[in-house]
């Protein structure tokens, strides 16, 4: 859905009807929510709804005060918020705290009971699954319909149609009615449309990012690019996602705005509010200085004997994945092996592995650098490295038609559950001045199925953890 420069002020008249009025918005402000409240009428039984539509009128006719057959439920209470152009703002809160209600009032699909919402720019929103598309229409017809609803002309949709379908990557399904789509395909097409709508403001509910790992990464790349110039509102239960993507965040609790501030502080407040009492350090941990080479977690044997062993599935390298480069070389293979070079379809977090990358060289490379980084589902780099430092004084040049193999040996961190992907690249030059020959996004994907790590981006092998008790002398 979209709206361009929508200014709606709502207040209640004596009959409880919404009144609309215009308002002005400074050019620097993308969205202003002013004292917005939303009240739902909640009926205990279906017949109460019928009674409410008949009896109050009858009682008024005979001059008696009407009684209500519903209870009021305030999903938003007096929420005020200003989002400046170009900001990325996260909205966080528990289930039922009012996040969707607030988004819907911003997108104009829900009228507030009182207060005003002013929007300066074209909004494209990915909210409820099922909203926006007509299930009986084909993907193609829905692309045209929603493109036009988003403010594009028929000709503009026509020009962008192939790009939209390529982005969604749903193949011939685009000619099928969307009621035959899986939820993943539905979201892919819906996201592809909003990604091509020239919106000024994107409103995204992260719970909807149900696509596969490649699509998730594609959306994250798009979102990060869009963020450079556009305004984004991002809703999530996941504080890591909010801190990673947003500069500011808003914490909602029971329909009320509890806090607005930098994303990190707001997420810390959200964490604190999800515990009954503030979390205080309960154990005293002493970590000794690291002066020995890395060795496995001293608890690994115990953890690995349980269902919490960090089993990581390794998928096949896909050379066809999106990427870029000047074509001087092509990354033809990447695999994870053990230290003897045997390919590993599964690895265990904490163990020493090798990432082996093969590169076919088409034009001579004077000073090749091969590098990689591992990203989480948000596209956030977790770690990575390259061959530059090891070879800067003795570069290994390579001629056209030859094959270069790079190998990185490292202890795989313990990964929280989820999908991760390796970006792999080969360049020619120095650390500061080089040209990318080939860069493959998400070339190698791994999935962590089970994990003992639930907080933090990765777990690292621990050498020692102690509890010290100083008993008080009576
Ligand atoms: N049409 C409705 N009638 C009555 N109550 C409603 C209606 N829509 C939402 N609510 C209630 O309003 C409250 C806020 O709902 P909302 O969907 O905005 O929460 P949320 O923070 O988005 O939750 P979640 O994280 O579960 O999506 C909830 O208690 C919900 O039950």
Automatic annotation (TrEMBL):
<dbReference type="InterPro" id="IPR015860">
    <property type="entry name" value="ABC_transpr_TagH-like"/>
</dbReference>
<dbReference type="Pfam" id="PF14524">
    <property type="entry name" value="Wzt_C"/>
</dbReference>
<dbReference type="InterPro" id="IPR027417">
    <property type="entry name" value="P-loop_NTPase"/>
</dbReference>
<dbReference type="InterPro" id="IPR029439">
    <property type="entry name" value="Wzt_C"/>
</dbReference>
<feature type="domain" description="ABC transporter">
    <location>
        <begin position="56"/>
        <end position="279"/>
    </location>
</feature>
<comment type="similarity">
    <text>Belongs to the ABC transporter superfamily.</text>
</comment>
<keyword id="KW-0813">Transport</keyword>
<dbReference type="GO" id="GO:0016887">
    <property type="term" value="F:ATP hydrolysis activity"/>
</dbReference>
<dbReference type="GO" id="GO:0016020">
    <property type="term" value="C:membrane"/>
</dbReference>
<keyword id="KW-0067">ATP-binding</keyword>
<dbReference type="InterPro" id="IPR003439">
    <property type="entry name" value="ABC_transporter-like_ATP-bd"/>
</dbReference>
<dbReference type="GO" id="GO:0005524">
    <property type="term" value="F:ATP binding"/>
</dbReference>
<keyword id="KW-0547">Nucleotide-binding</keyword>
<protein>
    <submittedName>
        <fullName>ABC transporter ATP-binding protein</fullName>
    </submittedName>
</protein>
<dbReference type="InterPro" id="IPR003593">
    <property type="entry name" value="AAA+_ATPase"/>
</dbReference>
<dbReference type="InterPro" id="IPR050683">
    <property type="entry name" value="Bact_Polysacc_Export_ATP-bd"/>
</dbReference>
<dbReference type="GO" id="GO:0140359">
    <property type="term" value="F:ABC-type transporter activity"/>
</dbReference>
<dbReference type="Pfam" id="PF00005">
    <property type="entry name" value="ABC_tran"/>
</dbReference>
